[in-house]
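RECORD TYPE: inverse folding
INPUT: structure tokens
STRUCTURE:
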């Protein structure tokens, strides 16, 4: 495909690290077009229907539903060859529908794993040591004792990781530096792989029952939705902490609030919600032993730079014939190659 008929990459005007556009603009065969998220759907559809690659946000509540990569959108975008998520997850993408349409789906998994792991440890410390609670009191109240906000060390505690992929493995390494005992449950991995990533493999029931801190690092899918419900929280160790930097919907927020109110659980650190952001009157936001953040675990300057750079490099390499390293639906790769070659030939004929 020559420079006059470039590969067309579309994205919406949601924030992405500038390195994404900068790297793609260095490629004469690739053109990037930015569509408006609000206010001009006709223009947005015009951009999307001519795109070969749709660079899509992974944050489902940031993007209007009709611009999610679902069947209806795919039917309107016949030139689309690839949907590329700007994150490790792809909640805005119907992978099955893309697979049926012959559209490749890629993510940037691992790009912000270090950021997520640091945030996970930060939430553990903030909840266990009551850092946020102490900060709030010091700004508004006088006459309280230091002992009234006394917390607990995380060193020596047992950490249970539900999922030990990129972020989970980095979390395990950081936890061990604090002297924590780490175990993990991950149905997608062998016991030997779990051990190689720094944790002792256990089943979910054992992990929930024996962990001092349970931290979620699993994807959101049909197998994990509402995985932590009232019964699961009740089976957790009394006084345990619950942490999630995974996805909203994996845990039942109202059941968690109940477990915290009764004192069965000592605290929670929550970076993810369903929906995001949660309403201001959400019961979890009224509890002093909850530290709440706005899905920012992977949103560090370094993390956002990494995923944007990875996304650009993956797109560039794919159109040079290099197999993408982070394919969500690998069975579509051969179809992607065939459709790309056909598009290249058609462009050469009409050039």
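DESIGNED SEQUENCE:
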């Amino acid at each position: 495909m020559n420079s006059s008929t470039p590969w067309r990459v579309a994205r919406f005007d949601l924030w992405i690290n500038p390195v994404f556009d900068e790297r793609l603009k260095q490629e004469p065969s690739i053109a990037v077009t930015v569509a408006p998220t609000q206010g001009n759907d006709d223009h947005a559809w015009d951009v999307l229907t001519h795109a070969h690659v749709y660079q899509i946000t992974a944050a489902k509540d940031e993007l209007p539903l009709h611009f999610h990569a679902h069947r209806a959108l795919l039917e309107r975008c016949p030139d689309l060859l690839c949907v590329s998520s700007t994150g490790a997850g792809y909640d805005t993408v119907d992978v099955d529908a893309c697979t049926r349409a012959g559209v490749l789906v890629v993510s940037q998994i691992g790009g912000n794993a270090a950021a997520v792991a640091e945030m996970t440890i930060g939430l553990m410390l903030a909840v266990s040591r009551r850092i946020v609670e102490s900060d709030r009191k010091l700004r508004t109240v006088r006459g309280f004792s230091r002992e009234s906000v006394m917390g607990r060390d995380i060193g020596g505690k047992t950490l249970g990781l539900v999922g030990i992929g990129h972020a989970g493995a980095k979390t395990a390494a950081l936890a061990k530096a604090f002297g924590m005992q780490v175990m993990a449950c991950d149905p997608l991995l062998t016991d030997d792989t779990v051990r190689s990533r720094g944790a002792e493999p256990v089943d979910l029931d054992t992990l929930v029952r024996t962990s001092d801190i349970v931290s979620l690092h699993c994807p959101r899918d049909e197998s994990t939705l509402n995985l932590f419900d009232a019964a699961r929280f009740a089976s957790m160790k009394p006084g345990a902490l619950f942490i999630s930097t995974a996805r909203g919907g994996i845990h039942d927020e109202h059941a968690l609030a109940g477990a915290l109110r009764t004192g069965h659980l000592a605290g929670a650190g929550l970076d993810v919600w369903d929906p995001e952001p949660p309403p201001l009157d959400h019961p979890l936001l009224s509890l002093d032993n909850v530290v709440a953040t706005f899905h920012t675990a992977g949103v560090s300057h370094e993390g956002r730079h990494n995923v944007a750079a990875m996304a650009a490099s993956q797109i560039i390499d794919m159109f040079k014939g290099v197999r993408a390293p982070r394919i969500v639906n690998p069975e579509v790769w051969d179809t992607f190659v065939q459709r790309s070659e056909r598009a290249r030939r058609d462009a050469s004929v009409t050039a």
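NOTES: The chain is about 35% helix and 15% strand.
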